[in-house]
Amino acid sequence: MGTISSDGEFKQAVGQLSPERQRAVGALFVEHVLALSGDARIEYVIQTAAKPDAGKDELARALKEAKGATMDSYTHCGEQCNWAEQGGYFVARAAEALVTPIEQSKAGGPAWQTAMYCRMARNCEAIEQGMPEGNKEESEQYRMLNEFLGSD
Amino acid sequence: MSRAQIEKAHQAFREVMDAPTASFFSSCVHCGLCAEACLFYTETGDPRYTPIHKLKPLRRFWEQEFTLLGRLKKRLGLSRPVTDDELVEWRELVYNACSLCGRCSMVCPVGNDITGMIRKMREGMVASGNAPEGLIGATTRAVTIGSPMGVKLPALQAQARHVEKSTGLSVPFDREGAEYMMLMSSMEIINYPEYLEAVARIFEQAGKSWTISSEAFEATNSGIQIGSSDIARELVSRVVGAAEKLKVKTVISPECGHAYTAIRWEGPNLIGRAYPFKVKHILEVLDEFRASGLLQTEGMEKARMTFHDPCQLVRRGGVIEQPRKLLGMVAENFVEMEDHGTMNWCCGAGGGVSANEEAEALRLKAFQRKKSQLDALQVDTLVTACANCRIQLEEGLEKNHMAIPVVGLTEMLAEHLVEQGEEGSGE
Fold first, then answer.
1. Which of A103, A112, B224, B386 is 20 to 30 Å from B144 at the Cα level?
2. pTM, rounded to two decimals
3. Which residues from chain A sit within 8 angstroms of residue B259, using beta carbons?
């Protein structure tokens, strides 16, 4: 496949990767938005996901940590939303998607789902900063995926 | 609390007292069946959480003001008036320990709508300044900003743009003459923007026109939860005004329980007239699409899964068969909880409980009922159709070390749509 420059190509490319490689590239996506989260558990999840030989138990523990981070960062019903903090919630969701077993993963697979949540995290930052035109996280993800695939 | 405030509570109680309420209080046989139907009682064993007990001050007020014997007893000093201290004490019972799920009303042998009376009691609590801070904040934001969670239009537009980028589809705002006007809950905009993407994809496949109003996109109604009919009326009026302005045929209530109750069932009574449009829950609309052959899916989920019925959909709205028919399209290993449909157990977070920080520990305690149901089934996936239920279920499962993913039904259906071409607009 040539250089990826659209979501269609992006989704197809990550969908063709093995589960291990989906986690590896997804870890790069999460790392790229990590600054939006202050939760140390996310780093552990990224490290686990990036390990090519991560075992089932390790991944299950990472998933539990990611879920804990998600539940500690969501905005409760009726609570005033702080969009800066909400970015952290989506980083946690991205980490969760990253280590979710592939058979439980939503459509598109772990890497695609991770990428989407990372974009949502960046979207929260844009909302917080009053930049309604959004962000360029998707082009950053295209770049990361191109580099990842090019390093084979 | 000042004398003026307690008098406001009394006045609010007087205003909500009607023939059904008087009849309910007169006919209660003190059987206690409502206790066993309330998860706040069953999961704590605390007799104060017996639903009819939560109404004790309102009941005494009715006796003293509206019955001959009660008036006599009051005059002779044999029955003390409802006091401010009493309402302060009852706040926990009326707000923290009631999700307005309506299960108690279902089991009452004489047909008393106990939940409806708790709503009335909340009117007096609000009038006397006894509502919880969290609900007051949410309600204030709903009135002043248009969202209980402070979501402003640019934030929704930003989420919509994200959906447009990732799907290549349009999320239309203020399209006059569209067939459907989509409401959103703030919970979806903030925590589950995937819902909006699912809706965009499904309506594209169905070929139906839809729109979001930039003037009234919020579905939830804090006035219903806190117990203020005036505020509930104002919030309903905004939606009605927007729907009339855009001349839509149907307003769609999203995956939210109480929003559906508010706009569909209570709305016309609140504003005092019928709507010139229909109101349907998203699952009702999707099931209509299914029946008309407009919802084309492919593939089946193999995981063992069950459906958590949002209380307001089944007990207040009768939306029972629709989610099951929709699940039948995509789930081949669906199982029912022992109590489901009209007699489902609440997640523990409805009726404003989740917006009330004081209720957090009790809310998670109440979740134990749902945990028991899930333990009995041993499912791989839990599906629901209310963002508030969903986050409560996710949190409860996580706190109880249960690795069961929770998914929204609309999203699950969207994941199985027959693809209609390449997604994504790219750059």
1. B386
2. 0.94
3. none
